[in-house]
Design goal:
Elements (H helix, E strand, L loop, with lengths): L1 E10 L5 H18 L2 E7 L2 E9 H13 L3 E12 L10 E5 L10 E4 L6 H7 L1
GO molecular function, one term: FAD binding
Pfam families: BLUF (PF04940)
Organism: Aquariibacter albus
Length: 125
């Protein structure tokens, strides 16, 4: 059975372009191994992430995310079973300001303003 989980958290430090690039690259590799897909939004020092995949693997990743020192004030917004993935093509899509783009960053969807990514809204539907 597939599950979808959405959470928000506060970054514990400043995340520059290079740091975000490494975070995204590492997450994409890990998620591919776990058969997890999803989307990460970084905006104004806050993360919002949607993860989806087999329930046991979502749980494994959720436990790891709660121990990750790069963020705190983690709030679970939604967790439920689903019949299909929203981000089936992305082990980790990523949205933030266009100025953070690094050439070759897979799955990057720039934001034009301060609003939440429409991709994250898909997770809550």
């Amino acid at each position: 059975m597939l599950e979808r989980l959405v959470y928000e958290s506060r970054a514990t430090g400043d995340f520059g372009t290079l740091h975000l690039f490494h975070l995204l690259t590492h997450s994409q590799g890990r998620n591919e191994r776990l058969q997890i897909t999803g989307h990460l939004l970084y905006l104004n020092g806050r993360f919002t992430q949607c993860i989806e995949g087999p329930g046991d693997r979502v749980e494994t990743l959720w436990q790891a995310l709660q121990r990750d020192p790069r963020h705190d004030q983690i709030e679970l917004l939604m967790r439920r079973p689903v019949t299909e993935r929203v981000f089936s093509e992305w082990s980790m899509a990523f949205s933030t300001h266009a100025s953070y783009y690094v050439h070759g960053m897979r799955g990057f969807f720039p934001l034009d303003d301060e609003e939440r990514s429409p991709l994250i809204a898909l997770c809550s539907a």
